[in-house]
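FORM 7B: Structural annotation worksheet

SECTION A. Query
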Amino acid sequence: MKSIFTFLALLLLATLHAATPAKPNIIFILADDLGIGNLGCYGSDHYKSPNLDKLAATGTRFSQFFTGALCGPSRALIMTGRYAFRNGSSNQDACMVMPKTELQLGHVFKSAGYATSFIGKWGQLPGDPDTAGFDDYLRFNGSGVYWNQKAGKAEAYRVNGKELKLGDKEYMPDLMHARITEFLRANQEKPFFLFYSMAKLIAELEALKIRDHTLIVFMGDNGTGKAQNPLSTIHGRSLSGMKGSMLECGGLVPFIVNWPGKTPAGKVSADLMDASDLLPTFAELTGGRMPGKTIFDGHSIVPQLRGELGTKREWIYNQLAAMWYVREAHWKLNEKGELFDMSDAPFTEKLIDAADDTDASKAARDRLTAVLAKLNPAGGIPDSGDGTGRHANKEKTTEPAKPGEALDPTAERAAKFDRLDKARTGKLTRDDYTANQSDAVAAAGRFEKMDTNQDGIVTREEYIRNGK
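SECTION B. Predicted structure
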């Protein structure tokens, strides 16, 4: 009998050689741009989430779980268990060229004998999922891959290296669910890890009589997006920060676990955690290997998943570009040395001037300063972006124009193409062009305008001639 590991949207499916109660099926669901203000079980005033509320009511909900404030840095943290100054993923562009030496989740599961598969959004990580330890995958770039090209623009997706397009009557979530269902039915006697969509998935697990042996882990990949943020209030109060922000709710995300008979039903834990804890947690659950010489920033939270005390974190660390902070239960210190009273988080953050320090704030300032000094993020891999963490959204020329000198438009377009053409093939696929861009729909629209012969490829000449 084999076990399966599935990471959905990120989605991995994995198979182990001998299933045991100690090595459960694992479903990991990563929701794009979903903050705490978007779920009913976290107190949202406007959003309804009945299936997730039920998952929390029958499982355990964590109220202090942090990850990166943008998609790429968050996913890199999840996949490696290492902070951005160690894995080099402090901005969107940098995530695309994360060092190949980084151990990733797929590698951990494979070391435990699992066969691995990935289904979902991948565009902000390097290569294809097979480079991260996944034997099988269905992947697409960015958000917006739902309908066909006329309705949704970003219709391209890739299955095990083959680029495909959505048909007129196809819907990406249905394709993903069908692939997952096929996998589950073929491997229902084996433990697995899955990352995907809720109600139909749980129904399928129950139909296959494997729900009791399945751990479901649900989290958001960063805070709420700008468009949804105005309605993301809790108990009538606005939240501090959103996606892309180093305020509280840029990185504070929903985190729910549900494992029948193992996780306490209806429990809410306020233990501090961050996404670096996931890799060592999955390694413990599966028996996967973690190289002893590599520094991993997280630690296993398996005891907390089971409702036990475990080893509690005293602080979490968060970084975006060259901005970072360490946070305790009630205090936060950033890279500028600014201390914030977080007693009213996630709604407000009170800046405490050093001249106004109380004994408590002075002690917190000293503790967190010592933590940052030990971590030494400034001594790690430096941020290579534009300072916002969104460097991937900007196409920059290699050299700025000199004062009073205009850039040659043709040379500028050629330079931009060469930077995008990382494989040096002289052509770009839609995936190449839209990779790591936050608005995949708009990017796909630009690609179509440049692709004058509609062959799905933009050559260097087409890019220079038709681009703006």
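SECTION C. Observations
The first strand starts at residue 4 and ends at 8. Residues 10-19, 150-154, 392-408 have pLDDT under 50 and may be disordered.

SECTION D. Sign-off
Analyst initials: ____
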